[in-house]
Backbone:
């Protein structure tokens, strides 16, 4: 599958509030923990080998489950492969919780659902659709019927 | 850089309806010819397939840090482009089947980036707070100096979004704020040369702190761009003999 790699590399260089050196272990049997600079930008989780400018890889944070594991680690698993988990080891439980929270909110889907929530609540309270003033009420992505898992 | 293809394929082939899909002509990177591909937009990812119904996409274009422009079309091919500005970065040239589709795609792609949704979310959060009667002031919106919306106007700097104080909120509203610095702006400072009919690329000054104004400005800007584009088309049609008198398909009010 082709992708715009150079453009994604640019995205990976953007400043991010959520970037830290963590222990990272891949999902396959035999994968070991390695130190990686892990950086969240939009809905991508980039991971860099220490002192390398370009990321070794990126995880697309859509349709994934982020969970705290043990006191100081969290895992990222994807919807149809829930046993295959990427594990991240943190320095503290607090750091771990912050990452879980940030990654949970990182997906486009999460934002969409939040928007739908507010749209619906505002409509209930005021009888008006807040998206109407922008002329985007009919957009497919804002329809209730397109609730995604 | 390794991309875990399965994640993309899974995301692309979800059961839920996509944001937009349809056939577009896509110009090859090196070759001058256009290939007809099936395109499918989900969030900020534009997938394309060799054929409609193929299980896996041929490729994906991540729609962050890019601008979307209408192109001068020869032989009425309703062309537009996804432009990534910067050294070595690519421009994707696409053609739609008709004017309606062309405008529809440009509109969809312009608002596909995260920043747009974040702004919208900020706005709805603010409205919700107002109508639900919460009196506690919110810590919302981009921090001063972080509200720059990319020099070329397409990339977004949503800035440092902070979570509202939890105690002030009613039980109903979950803490839904993205807590990261999602700043994505085009990497190059240079504006590309205009290619025929192009949606205006304006320079943004620092946007006012209030989220509503930020979003309203953004939104009216998109609307204005599309208006400009429509005007161009209208003029062109008039110059071209004005045979086609169909009403405008998109009513921006």
Residues:
């Amino acid at each position: 599958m082709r992708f715009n790699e150079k453009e994604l590399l640019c995205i990976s260089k953007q400043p991010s509030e959520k970037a830290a050196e963590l222990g990272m272990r891949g999902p396959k049997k035999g994968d070991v923990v390695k130190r990686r600079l892990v950086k969240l930008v939009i809905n991508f989780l980039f991971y860099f080998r220490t002192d390398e400018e370009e990321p070794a890889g990126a995880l697309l944070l859509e349709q994934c489950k982020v969970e705290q594991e043990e006191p100081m680690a969290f895992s990222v698993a994807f919807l149809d492969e829930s046993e295959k988990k990427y594990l991240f080891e943190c320095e503290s439980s607090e750091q771990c919780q912050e990452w879980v929270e940030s990654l949970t909110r990182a997906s486009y889907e999460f934002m969409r659902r939040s928007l739908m929530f507010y749209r619906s609540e505002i409509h209930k309270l005021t009888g008006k659709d807040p998206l109407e003033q922008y002329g985007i009420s009919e957009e497919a992505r804002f329809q209730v019927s397109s609730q995604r898992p | 850089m390794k991309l875990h293809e399965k994640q993309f394929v899974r995301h692309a082939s979800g059961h839920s309806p996509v944001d937009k899909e349809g056939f577009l002509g896509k110009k090859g990177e090196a070759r001058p010819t256009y290939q007809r591909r099936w395109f499918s937009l989900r969030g900020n990812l534009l997938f394309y397939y060799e054929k409609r119904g193929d299980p896996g996409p041929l490729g994906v274009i991540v729609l962050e840090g890019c601008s979307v422009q209408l192109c001068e079309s020869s032989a009425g091919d309703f062309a537009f482009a996804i432009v990534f500005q910067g050294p070595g970065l690519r421009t994707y040239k696409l053609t739609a089947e008709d004017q309606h589709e062309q405008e529809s795609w440009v509109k969809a792609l312009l608002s596909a980036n995260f920043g747009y949704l974040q702004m919208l979310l900020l706005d709805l959060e603010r409205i919700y707070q107002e109508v639900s009667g919460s009196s506690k002031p919110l810590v919302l919106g981009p921090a001063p100096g972080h509200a720059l919306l990319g020099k070329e106007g397409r990339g977004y700097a949503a800035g440092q979004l902070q979570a509202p104080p939890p105690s002030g909120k009613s039980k109903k509203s979950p803490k839904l704020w993205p807590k990261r610095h999602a700043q994505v702006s085009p990497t190059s400072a240079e504006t590309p040369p205009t290619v025929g009919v192009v949606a205006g690329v304006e320079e943004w000054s620092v946007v006012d702190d209030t989220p509503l104004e930020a979003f309203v400005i953004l939104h009216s800007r998109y609307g204005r761009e599309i208006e400009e584009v429509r005007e161009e088309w209208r003029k062109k049609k008039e110059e071209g003999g004005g045979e086609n008198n169909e009403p405008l398909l998109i009513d921006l009010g």
About this structure: The two ends of chain A are 24 Å apart (CA to CA). Chain A touches chain B through 66 residues (CB under 8 Å).
